[in-house]
Amino acid sequence: MSDKLRMFTGNANRKLAESVCDYLDIPLGKAEVGRFKDNEIVVRIKENIRGADIFVFQPTFPPAENLLELLIMLDAVMRASASRVVAVIPYFGYARQDRKDQPRVAISAKLVANLIATAGATRVVSMDLHSHQIQGFFDVQFDHLFAAPILIDYFFKKDIGNLVVLAPDVGSVKMARAYAKRLDAGLAITDKRRPRPDVAEAVNVIGEVKDKNVVIIDDMISTGSSMVQASHAAKERGAKDVYAACTHPVFCGDAMKNLELAGLKEVIVTDTIPHDPDKLNSNIRVLTVAPLLGEAVRRIHEERSLSSLFV
Ligand code: R5P
Predict the structure, then answer these.
(1) Strand ranges (DSSP E) for 10-117?
(2) Quick check: CB of 222 below 6 Å from ligand 1?
(3) Segment 234-286, tens digit of pLDDT
(4) Which helix (H) or strand (E) holds 60?
(5) Are residues 115 and 139 in the same domain?
(6) From the alpha carbon of 224, which atom of ligand 1 is closest?
(7) Residue 1 pLDDT
(8) pLDDT value at residue 152
(9) Quick one: 38 and 129 in the same domain?
């Protein structure tokens, strides 16, 4: 193990990278991640990292420039003779196409996994993957963290009584069940259909939500359509206060408008994807995952177990 731990970041979420470095009590590594005149990405590591334990921090939400910056940074640190190169990807983009479920479609999650390893990552850390099996797309070590301890702690402290955790679709049931167990709450499931990509329709709620306070939990909010549909379905069936929570606030298209119209008491997200606070609805609360990521980085560097973080 190298004594030297350094972290570098691209431009996708510098604020979170700085918070992780604050947690680790190290300065952010000096690197230029800029553009040539024609807008091609140029990366230069501005310190000696020979033999060091290097963490390259970058979530890969759109635009694809974020992914490209990560790949080029990994290449740069690998060529600068780092002893270990760990990609820290708080939000792993291109994950939604993870299987060939229709003719002539790509499996972008596998392609991106290959690109990251080819660029030089010898280990990858990510959080709340869209589907857990994406870990298996990597032939390098992979640490899959969950924002659950942070989100659950928030609800725990709020001490909302008479609570039901609602999965917005069948794919989120496992996540919702884990939250329900730890919050000592009931569990309900939305029967969601997707007539078209990015359009969600909730046709039924399985489980009791009448006169209950409801927390809808998902890995991400993209257009907000799934949350809105699940919220309406719960309210139509007599739910009281409805909260929405997710790890990754992708927030695209009319997400703000949709969430505003959903009548949610509060929307709780994390800072894996940054947003201008002035552009967020007033009932959106952002919790930081910096301590969780920082602790994972520290334990990897010190060759200690991460299992207590995987809860
Ligand atoms: C479903 O496949 C995911 O877990 C999310 O429910 C979905 O991506 C959210 O998308 P939107 O906010 O556009 O409904």
Answers:
(1) 31-35, 41-45, 53-57, 84-89
(2) yes
(3) 999 999 999 999 999 999 999 999 999 889 999 999 999 999 999 999 999 99
(4) none
(5) yes
(6) 12
(7) 53
(8) 97
(9) yes
Q: Using only C-alpha atoms, what is the Rg of the chain?
A: 20
DSSP-derived 3-state class of residue 25: coil
Q: How far is the CA of 200 from the centre of ligand 1 (A)?
A: 8
CA 300 to chain centre: 19
- Residue 93 Cβ contacting ligand 1 at under 6 Å: no
At 311 the pLDDT is: 64
Catalytic site positions = 192
Do 96 and 170 lie in one domain? The reply is: no
Residue 19 CB–ligand 1 contact under 6 Å:
no
Pick the atom of ligand 1 nearest to 255's CA: 12
Q: Which domain holds residue 40?
A: 5-146+290-310
Q: Are 212 and 189 in contact (CB under 8 A)?
A: no
CATH code, domain with 253: 3.40.50.2020
d(CA 226, ligand 1 centre) in Å: 6
pLDDT at 299 over 60: yes
Same domain, 198 and 281: yes
How many angstroms separate the alpha carbon of residue 218 from the centre of ligand 1?
A: 8
Q: Is the CB–ligand 1 distance for residue 224 below 6 Å? A: yes
Confidence of residue 200 (pLDDT cuts 50, 70, 90): confident
pLDDT digits (tens, 9 = 90+) for 121-175: 999 999 999 999 999 999 999 999 999 999 999 999 999 999 999 999 998 999 9
Locus of tokens 């894996």: 272
State the residue for tokens 């520290």: 298
Query: Do 154 and 122 belong together in one domain?
Result: no
| pTM tops 0.90, yes or no | yes
Percentage of the residues of the chain whose pLDDT score is greater than 70: 99
The answer on 115 and 67 residing in a single domain is yes
Contact 86, 98 (CB under 8 A): no
Q: What residues pair up with 192 in beta bridges, in sequence order?
A: 202
Q: What is the mean pLDDT of residues 292-298?
A: 97
User: 180, 186 in Cβ contact below 8 A?
Assistant: yes
* Whether residues 26 and 36 fall in one domain: yes
Query: What is the domain count for the chain?
Result: 2
